[in-house]
Fold this sequence. Notes:
By secondary structure, the protein is of the alpha/beta class.
Amino acid sequence: MARNFSISIVIPNYNYSEFLKDLLRRINESTNRTEIQLIVVDGGSTDNSKDVAKAYLKPHDKFVCEPDEGQADAIAKGLTIADGRWFMFQNSDDMFNIDVLDDFVENHSDSSEEVMAYDQETLVDDGSSLKHFSSFRHLYPVRWRQMFVNIYYTNQSTIYDTQLARKVGFDKSFRFALDYDFAVRFFKAVHPRVKLVRMVLGMQRLHGDTKTSKMQDVCRVETKRVRDREFAVMDRLFGVTQAMLYHALKAFVNLRNRGVRRYRA
């Protein structure tokens, strides 16, 4: 009988051996590594990704190496064999704040909510250094209609109930907006209880070879496809109104906090 881990992290990979090595090495520094199951799904890389996976994965992890139909297909394969109570996926070129991952295992993995939402940073990798930028901070849980405007729940910083994630599934026809498609359908179908944790869990790495840098046209087409399929006219109007109120309140809170810090200084 398979053991139930605190979390299964699915890592799709294709020819990103150096990034994969960096990600796995850092996760192995976790003090709760035995509670973290990694599932690397490699689409048949021609670099040394297979050797990296074999060197850094632990006996309780899983490695799938076979041709796939893209990133969404790879994630779906990993989700199917995940043994963890919780599930998330992390691109092999992205990174974790390991202390926060440990905090999840120790303090939040028994939570009764269906989604754990963390804050996110962006890393700009110029080949010689990494520059950190705050990319998103949650104010309060966003509901599905507001996601017409933005994803809000990025894959780098959102953890899902595994069983519910399996029921929603991934659409392998998406090449870029698979995370947006999954998040919208999950929140629309499940209406989950969301626990916000005010710490940075995941960090998206931007570099010259990332999909974010190369596939903006595909991003626009696929994002529109999700919006056209999932949001009726009234959903869109309601979602835009929610987003305007959300971001206005967020701007007010940020200004107030700056004023408090200035006053205390």
